[in-house]
Amino acid sequence: MSDSAIISKIWNLANVLRDDGVSYGDYLEQITYLLFLKMTDELNKPPYNKGLRLPRIKDVEGKEIPDGEFCDWETLSGKRGAELESFYSQLLRSLSTEKGMLGHIFTKSQNKIQDPAKLLRVINMIDQEQWSLMDADVKGKIYEGLLEKNAEDTKSGAGQYFTPRALIKTMVACVQPKPMKTIADPACGTGGFFLAAYDWLVEHHQLNREEKEFLKNKTFHGNEIVANTRRLCLMNMYLHNIGDITGESFISSSDALVADSGKRYDYVLANPPFGKKSSYTVTNEAGEAEKEDLSYNRQDFWETTSNKQLNFLQHIKTMLKVTGEAAVVLPDNVLFEGGAGEEVRKQLMLTTDLHTILRLPTGLFYAQGVKANVLFFDNRPASKEAQTKEVWFYDYRTNVHHTLKKKPMTTADLAGFVKLYNPENRHKRTETWSEQNPEGRWRKFTYEEILARDKTNLDIFWLKDKSLTDLDNLPDPDILANEIIENIESGLNSFKEIMEMINGNSEE
User: Fold this and answer.
1) Average pLDDT of the segment spanning 117-135
2) CA–CA gap between residue 463 and residue 353 (Å, rounded)
């Protein structure tokens, strides 16, 4: 059976379970648990004989019951009816108390499929395939297909953390990671950047044994605070043969922004979570819940701010080795916001070589109304002179229209940018913009020109929006409708932020 047929088969069953109130996200979680158990069972049998031991059922105190049944696929798949449902729930609770990657995959796991008959259908469906015999790429593709389908379920907000694969691959193609180097993502979601980097390294390098071992166990390092998302990431990695199930998890559950871990990396590839402010809920003296801005007071930060993206940008600078390179997706406010934003931009250009900014169109993310950019910068040793000499801009926003379903962005759409970026030697670049060609999308600005702009503003445009001047050049109605919705929602979000600030100030 082809990978697309397996995806379709697995996802068709999700529609059946929806009638029982099982969301796509919950279903994907259950698939994650069951896939892991099935693959572990396969790996313990010939020709693999891995000897991966799973514990016996544990009591409420988390201690193995000496004569209890094993928490494995063979035992689970042999159960029927109410006994199946009861054992599965006990199995999940028992595995959640384990250490290392195993415990991380099953953290806070619960059975969401209450109907034993339908649970058995899912088990039988997974049991029909030999997952370990599949190529890692095929397994990964199947699971990635499920993740993407889950991300499309925007009603649950599941797609907020899903970065378009075309964008991820483009960023990796520009950075071109090398073997025996570390790659980090402080908000790694389901591991999209890790997998794209993995694919790049395998495809473009003839790896020796030492390099393969490093790639498997030492290359990737991430943070993901959402337990469900973290388990999806770990399973995604496991299916791509990254990491060791008996070893420690390379995905931390801690908030990356809280403190500097002290670890430094060769590359950081990231799309930190959307949302302008970091906040937490407290209960006041009157017993009412209210939100307070969360600021991270860190000595390594240039500015203390509640702006989440500015904090992530400062943190990523800290994470880099002296020779480290970064490619980060950030919203427009990072480019133009005054106060802390201006100071962060100045410091970033002083201490790193901020050499490239890719302006992205709307319609790429499941979160509506997001205007984002990719910032590419290389860390540099301390110096009195600014490390940024010039910033190259590629405007892939003006007069560019994409939608998630009818006209999604592809790697082919960004191939022109990668060529102009010139990853083999980015110091030899040629502008496509000139006074003779004002429609050129590729243009550089010197450090002095940017510094002279109000608030060191990096929100730079020069192309004319044709839809404003040429009624014959309007986009398709569905694209136009989506853009209107995005603009309205973006405006509403801005008003909400203003009202929160006003209400917060009036209470002081």
Assistant:
1) 88
2) 25
